[in-house]
Design brief:
By secondary structure, the protein is an all-alpha fold. Helix content is 54%, strand content 1%. A hairpin with a 5-residue loop joins strand 1 and strand 2. It starts with 8 loop residues before the first helix and ends in a 20-residue tail after the last helix.
């Protein structure tokens, strides 16, 4: 498919929104090849769209969003969460669904909050399902504490350790850092905030979604590197307004990218330095 390079920022956002409006079917944003991911897919798209100014959304997309929010509310299970790829309630889809509802002004079921807390692991992080014997997952934990709006000492210890661990994939560390920096600043302990900042200094994004997440981080930190990264992200937008995602599904990558560019539109101005900790740069010894 041909690409239209270097749209203006506002035009890139509108093109991405138009693409998502066209991809909405049966009240939700479905994953083409993996319908078991419909809850997670729709929740992620809704969470990102919840940060876009309502004035930017056309009537069709606003209707799509309301339909998907209604569908997501109905997909909430009697156990308290939202189903994942296993066919059972999972922490990842549940955390994203809570964020989607919050950002779009919908009420979050109390049972969803309680169920998410029941996924607490012994190591301070969060596992996919209550009682899961596997170790807690970095990205799941970061999104979960964002959804819960609380980072206690145990969660902080787990997140700091896993962000520093080389066992975690770079894309996972970036996604976790983006979730942490998206939290209310007052809820994030300084050591964890500093650790997330350091990740942004050394990561080399490859995919469109990784570029979008890094752009979100830089914008939260109000660093001027965001301008060049945003230009590169716009350059990879396809002719139809999408950004390349996983397999044949591009909805989440597109929602993440246009949301990041929309955040750029809302910035009053970027500058060197901020009241947040600056990423520590490594210098070669002479």
């Amino acid at each position: 498919m041909p690409r239209l390079r270097r749209r203006a920022n506002a035009d890139a956002v509108v093109a991405g929104l138009d693409y998502l409006a066209c991809r909405h079917e049966n009240g939700r944003w479905s994953d083409i090849r993996r319908p078991e991911f419909d809850s997670l897919n729709s929740a992620c798209v809704l969470a990102f769209l919840g940060e876009v100014a309502p004035s930017t959304l056309g009537p069709r997309l606003r209707q799509n969003i309301n339909e998907s929010l209604n569908w997501l509310a109905q997909a909430h299970t009697a156990d308290g969460g939202w189903k994942g790829s296993s066919g059972k309630d999972e922490a990842g889809p549940t955390a994203w669904s809570i964020l989607a509802l919050k950002r779009n002004g919908r009420k979050v079921p109390e049972s969803a909050i309680e169920w998410l807390w029941s996924c607490r692991g012994r190591d301070g992080g969060f596992v996919n399902r209550p009682g899961d014997p596997d170790a807690s997952a970095l990205e799941v934990t970061a999104v979960t504490v964002q959804a819960l709006g609380r980072i206690d000492a145990d969660a902080e210890k787990f997140l700091c350790a896993r962000l520093q661990s080389e066992a975690a994939e770079p894309s996972e560390r970036l996604a976790a850092s983006a979730a942490i920096l998206d939290c209310e600043k007052s809820t994030v302990p300084f050591p964890l905030l500093n650790q997330a900042c350091q990740i942004t200094a050394g990561v080399c994004p490859v995919t469109a979604q990784d570029r979008a997440l890094l752009l979100r981080c830089l914008l939260r930190l109000r660093l001027t590197r965001a301008w060049a990264l945003a230009d590169g992200l716009r350059a990879t937008q396809r002719f139809d307004g999408s950004w390349v995602g996983t397999a044949e599904d591009h909805t989440v990558a597109t929602a993440a990218a246009l949301s990041a560019l929309a955040l750029l539109e809302s910035q009053p101005g970027l500058y060197f330095g901020s009241d947040l900790p600056r990423p520590r740069r490594l210098h070669k010894s002479s």
